[in-house]
Amino acid sequence: MHPLDILDTPAAVLDVARLQHNLAHMQQRISALGVALRPHIKTSKCLAVVQQQLALGAQGVTVSTLKEAQQCLAAGITDITYAVGIAPAKLPQVLALRRQGAQLTILTDNLASAQAIGSFCQVQGEAIPVLIEIDTDQHRSGVAPESGLLLDLGRALHASGCLAGVLTHAGASYQCNTPAALQAMAEQERAGCVRAAERLRAAGLPCPVVSVGSTPTALSATRLHGVTEVRAGVYAFMDLVMANVGVCSADDIALSVLATVIGHQAERGWALVDAGWMAMSRDRGTQSQACDYGYGQVCDADGRLLPGWVMSGANQEHGIVGFDAAKPGAGAAPADVVQALPVGTRLRILPNHACATAAQFAGYHALQRDGTLADWPRWNHW
């Protein structure tokens, strides 16, 4: 009997050996570069994973929701950065967590929020440390390193005793796909954030924290001079987007969705499985990359790749698995999909975006090195 046969499908399966390899590799790399690793736990949202990261040497955690911060604090993890621009209405919740013992740092990139933070802290008689978000790649939010707004924000936050440093995320690294491009983006991220810190200091403002990070840049940086910490998240599980970027292989992807073949459209070469976009998520992150895997790449029940097989389409609870001879290593198409993937066949589907796929499930079935399973719950929602 296969160890996964006891699971109902769809199910989130976490390969612990791959997970532990990914965690150790990142920690060793960042430690060798001489800075701290503050993992972004939005990928796993799971205490069992976070505890392993901390045991390997991570210094604090990064969260994307205050619920993650609450759960970490309940487990005794206090050094927390909330790396989403703060909504002023959440400041009472932030203060409550700090008064319960969390060393919680927040983020902003605009004067309206900075002024709201200052007013709130003045009324409460307690400063909340704030990082200024820096835009180093024009990807999303943040203040340009050379912007006049940077110094205005720094002065406003310093006046309320809240200025703690700068933070950036080079999300544009996800569009890179060569080692040279990745190294250049990592240096652009580092240099931009360090430049912002230097400008604040030159203006007489404190800037103790210089925080950078994304999984692609963390795995590509060759120097981190001037940086105090690196944040990365999806490295724990890896996914097909990261494989296309070039920072992992499919054999490093720790998360998969277990699904069962429930029928066929033989004339179309389709096998239907009981995992649709409600299980895989609607994320089509590989669509704009060199190799498009549809909704996921197909493996057998042991996690071995089935070259050429992809989840080419998905409805809410149905996945369409087909063969694409153009995919790497595909070979010749099977003559009969019914014989190739009979009804009842268990498959594991590798995700495009591990964070989005993991969020579809209440927890993980952690497949241990000895073949046993453990249930690892996760913290969903906000």
UniProtKB/TrEMBL annotation:
The keyword Phosphoprotein does not apply. GO terms for biological process: D-serine catabolic process. Keywords: Lyase. GO terms for molecular function: D-serine ammonia-lyase activity. SMART domains: D-ser_dehydrat (SM01119). It comes from the Bacteria. Pfam families: Ala_racemase_N (PF01168), D-ser_dehydrat (PF14031). Residues 254-368 form the D-serine dehydratase-like domain. Belongs to the DSD1 family. This is Alanine racemase. It comes from Pseudaquabacterium pictum. The lineage of its organism: Bacteria, Pseudomonadati, Pseudomonadota, Betaproteobacteria, Burkholderiales.
